[in-house]
Specification:
Blueprint: H1 3-17, H2 24-40, H3 45-59, H4 62-65, H5 70-86, E1 101-106, H6 113-126, E2 131-136, H7 143-154, E3 158-159, H8 166-179, E4 184-189, H9 197-210, E5 214-220, H10 225-238, E6 242-246, H11 255-264, E7 268-272, E8 280-282, H12 285-292, H13 298-308, H14 311-322, H15 328-340, H16 344-349, H17 367-376, H18 380-384, H19 391-401, H20 405-426
Parallel strand pairs: 1-4, 1-5, 2-3, 2-4, 5-6, 6-7
Antiparallel strand pairs: 7-8
Helix pairs in contact: 1-2, 1-5, 2-3, 3-5, 5-12, 6-7, 8-9, 10-11, 15-17, 17-19, 19-20
Amino acid sequence: MFEDLTAKLEATLKKLRGQGKLTEDNIADSLKEIRRSLLEADVNYRIAKEFIERIRQKAVGEEVIRSVTPGQQIVKIVHDELVELMGKSQSDLKLSGIPPAIIMLCGLQGSGKTTFAAKLANFLRKKGRHPMLVAADIYRPAAIQQLQILGKNLNVPVYAEENSVPVQICRSSIKAAREKSCDVLILDTAGRLHIDQEMMQELENIKKEITPQEILFVADGMTGQDAVNAASQFLERLDFHGVVLTKMDGDARGGAALSIRQVTNRPIKFVGIGEKPDALETFHPERMASRILGMGDVVSLVEKAQEVVDLNEAQKLEEKLRKEQFNLEDFYGQIQQIKKMGPLEQILGMIPGVGKQLKNVSLSDDAFVRVEAIINSMTPLERRKPQILNGSRRRRIAMGSGTRVQDVNQLLNQFEEMRKMLKKMKGGKFRGGLRPGALPF
């Protein structure tokens, strides 16, 4: 997400940090680069132009020129303007009122509405809600079956009707939700390959009949300005409440995220970052601005960790670290928790300063596969006491895991270095970091 834009902005701002003083000339040169970067990211031309003008007005001011650290000041100005551009603050779903609260999804076909509906149900369930999915797309082949499969996998009820019309399906789902004590209805409505009168009229009828608390426009983040143009037309007919950007884990250039809020004056509420049911993030403009500028996103990283960390297991691990009993079984358990947090590249990208270091490094969740295979090929005793792994044991482990003895040796060396690092941290003597390649990925 935003990889190219981040790299270009970092390079431009780095030049400004090297300046002893900000002048109109060096600011103008840098703003041209930033503007070009935004346009290449498929940001709306008018929005990019206004964005740059606001930065220029603030950057040329006396306060900035006299600053002790002018380079840092310009970064702050760009950061603040990015936050302003994307909506200032997070916008929560409004689900108050008599249950069930109704969330209506709309958007073009292929934007990811059905997948997002399941992700949203999973998200709300973790918040203590009891959602029900409604299959209101009766036109796309297998749309109802897809939603039913997703619902079954998540253990979330799905309401569907055969030989009915979308308005009737949505109306009947309210009674079904109350019978099952579901407090949120998520309507997966039909889309088209392009906007047409029939589709928009159907959506307007559903809105009029059901009166949903939330109408969310689901946009494919990879389509850039096309998503923004479609959003404008949906807004005119439906007056939706918020935006969802899907497929932001792919080759999305980021233009939709930076443009759609300004064009529609509606907040971005969620971002889809993968295919898995939990690959959904609430949209925080300030955190996203920090990611775009390569500053990382420690808050989101901590939140992800809190979701997957078992406090009892964490306390046991802390006790083992105090007694210097950290072994390969514990190491294996830590790998499983990291995998639950999401794709490795995304996790490391949230750490300040790490993202740019990974620019030319190929990272994949497959990086864990070899490590897991090696550890799984060990006996329980070997995992608890890796010091007993002599040459013959290592050859057996390599054969059993489909790897080389060198791979087994490398993992054990890395594990030993990690133990030494943890020992230093425990004693309050840690002064440095792991050498390159100290982690098994």
